[in-house]
Queue: 3 jobs
Job 1
Amino acid sequence: MRQQERILTFLILYIVCFSCKKDDTQTCISCSSPQTATFEVCDDGNGNATVNGENTGTSFEVYVAGLEAAGANCGGG
């Protein structure tokens, strides 16, 4: 019975530790420019920018700053 208690304890601890997942909240802003229709840029929750669901591999802040430097207007959304 001791072995069964250890296995059960291990399983419970495993489930508790690995069942918690990161929040899936995203911060998104709308951007537009004279050359494009309005589009949405989101922070994927890991700090990277995503556009149309595609991870850009670039920091959200850096990506938005680059868009604005290129003439895009980005704001709340």
Job 2
Amino acid sequence: MGRDDSMDAVLARTDHVWPDVYQALKDGIKTAIDLHDFIGWDYRDDSHLYKHMIRRTAVLAIKAHKPDLNPEAEEDEPTLRMSGIILTLKEDLVKVWHVTPAEISAPTTRAKRSFINQPHSRHFQAGLYDEVRDVVSHFRRPEELNKLILRWTVVDHCISRFDLIRPTGAKKKHIVFEWSDDLLERYQLR
């Protein structure tokens, strides 16, 4: 039987990860604030450095406390290093992206388009998977990792969005997803 990538199954197997990522991003916000205060800059005038410092601190914090998550900076865009964070889990590949609008823009690079294009999980569950295994293998190899996006937003030094998304492609100018789950309330008060 194929791996279950439904929302409930993914949350069950990844729930231990999100508190550490949330805390790492909070630590990154503190670092970015401290850096801007030390230099005397207004973070609103320098949003790219502000978010970069958050990501950089988060990657280092995750590497120090949870090296098994294999955190790395996403660098598929040569002009924008550390545009995101990548976490490699046993069955899932997670890209941690800061997104300001609610909708995520369709990717412009080949690597990001490849990342978001994956079949719906319901095609791989239980009997359906067993019955159409040959057809399904055309779309996804069994060892291929499930791809997820952890979408987060920082507003006034606070994380205002922290949700997990399973993308399946793009329609017009935005990413289409099979499911999403708002994780913010679970970790906001910790």
Job 3
Amino acid sequence: MQITTKLGVLAAACAVAGLIALGVSIRSNVDKPVIAAAKADASAARGVVITVQHARTVEHQVAITDAAAATEYQRGIEDGKIELQRAIDRLGAALRLRDKQLAAARAGNLSATSAGASRRDASAPADFLAAHGADAERLAAEADDVVRQLTACQAILARDRNGQ
């Protein structure tokens, strides 16, 4: 009986080994589509990562370009304020000089023609330039600010249209 027991155990072991082999075979056939799908998913995920990295690079470049345009715009605003103040100061100096010349002409130190050469009506002490010159300079400065805004917008639009 020992031989039959050994043969039975051997037969059982062979049956178990056969079932295991059959299971591995079935599993490998079932796993092939699963593995192929996983590989496709991994490839698609790599594509998404590359796309996101490219989008971030483009976004970074756009941010740099926009920051440069904003800096240039702000610099123009500050320069415009300085230029406005200088223009108002020049206007004030010109008006003071003219008033001194008119006073000297009235005192007889200059001819009336030289004192009033910069004015059309030498007899009217209050004129448009004296009354509204600073306002006109401010209005011109506001127009310059609008030009700066338009220039900044055009720079951004040109970059967007060029696909950068």
